Amino acid sequence: MATGNGSDLKLFALIAISAVVLAGLAAAFLLPLGQEAVAVMNQGIGLKSATLWGFGTTVALFILFAVVSGDSLIGEVQFLLASFFGFFLILTLLIAWIF
Fold first, then answer.
1. Secondary structure element (H or E) that encloses residue 94, with its range
2. Cα gap 12→53, rounded to integer Å
3. Which residues lie below 8 Å from residue 84, measured CB to CB, with a gap of 6+?
């Protein structure tokens, strides 16, 4: 059996509580900013606006993918770039269709 299970449980509780507090603070500060985005999207967005939203979302997600995978910045760039365009096209068309 592993020793120190009590300290692991305390660490988990501390991380869980801090995550809940951080999520609450983020919601308190970011929800009022979201009202402007909702007001803009109530009218619907066209393909031009959807392209901007799709590009921004795609770039943010692929930066996240590259950082998390660790090796993709050097070893898997060709796969990352090839999938970028497909992901961008699908995301843009889905955003234009839904909103």
1. helix 77-98
2. 36
3. 58, 62
User: Measured in whole angstroms, how far is the alpha carbon of residue 88 from the centre of its chain?
Assistant: 15
Q: Which amino acid is at 50?
A: A
Q: Is the pTM of this model over 0.70?
A: no
Helix segments in 1-76, DSSP class H? 5-41, 47-69
Tell me the per-residue pLDDT of 34-45, one tens digit each, with 9 for 90 and over: 777 677 667 777
Distance CA 58, CA 77 (A): 15
The pLDDT value recorded for residue 1 is 43
35 token code pair: 């009202």
Q: Are 45 and 99 in contact (CB under 8 A)?
A: yes
Are the C-beta atoms of residues 13 and 62 closer than 8 Å to each other? no
Which tokens is 26 given?
A: 């983020």
